[in-house]
Amino acid sequence: MLQGRLFVLGLGPGDPDLMTVKAARMIAAAPVVAFFAKQGRKGHARSMVDGQMRHDVEELRLEYPFTTEVAVEDPRYLTGMNEFYEVCAERLRAPLQTGRDVTLLCEGDPFLYGSAMYLFDRLRTECHAEIVPGVPGMSGCWSRANLPMTHGDDVLSVLPGTLDEESLLACLKLCDAAVLIKVGRNLPKICRVLRAAGLFERAVYVERGTMAGEHIVKLAEREDGPAPYFSMVLVPGRRYAR
């Protein structure tokens, strides 16, 4: 067993004030902090903890080999990301082997589409590993949009925009409310599917929810062109009377 402990911290939807007290306390004490980042960028999770880390912290920058450059359905994507996570896990093992605790940062909640879960899976049997939950991005977005999502016995689905149109439409027919994530270049496809499902006029588009540059608008009022990375589409439920 590795002597160091692994702490995976959910940082919340983007606004540093929405970080949990526990996460902030652990960041301030962490001897080693690891975080994911896009090539040439500081890293959003790293930016969220500016000024909160100790002066002698060791930072481990985990730089994605690609983000949107390779499509998810391309065989190179799965191979490349698997290799990347293996390398990242090995980098975290180095301080853990010497008895140093490692804190891995994750936007939103680590177990909800978070990259951090792939390192947790690789290391959980080798050391003490603990997850600190965070406010999910979707929660931050529907709160900022003042959009109650589920009512009574409404069924909520979280749907990746990377699904094909037929699958998206089938899933939408089985739920009352939906959160569509991984929007990006999939937004035109999402709009077509929502129109086919009769949900387009109900949908709300949220960009950079809780962050600087936040933009919230009815989807029908936005052009169908590609969206930035931090965006999602919300379809509220049936709004039964109470």
Question: Quick recap of the structure?
Answer:
This protein is α/β, with parallel strands linked by helices and 242 residues long. The chain has seven helices and ten strands. The mean pLDDT is 94.
The overall pLDDT average reads 94
Tell me the number of helical segments per DSSP (H or I, 4 or more residues long). Answer: 7
The backbone outline, from C-alpha atoms, is globular
Structural class: alpha/beta
Work out the number of β strands.
10
Strand content bin: 15-25%
Radius of gyration: 19 Å
Oligomer: single chain
The major pleated sheet works out as:
5 strands, parallel
User: What's the N-to-C terminus distance?
Assistant: 54 Å
Helix content: 25-40%
Strand order of the largest sheet: 3-2-4-1-5
Sequence stretches where pLDDT stays below 50 over 5 or more residues: none
Element-level helix/strand string: EHEHEHEHEHEHEHEEE
Please explain how this structure is put together.
By secondary structure, the protein is of the alpha/beta class. It is 30% helix and 21% strand. It is built from 7 helices and 10 strands. The strands form 2 sheets. The protein has a 5-stranded parallel sheet with strand order 3-2-4-1-5, sandwiched between helices. Strands 6-7-10-8-9 form a 5-stranded mixed sheet, sandwiched between helices.
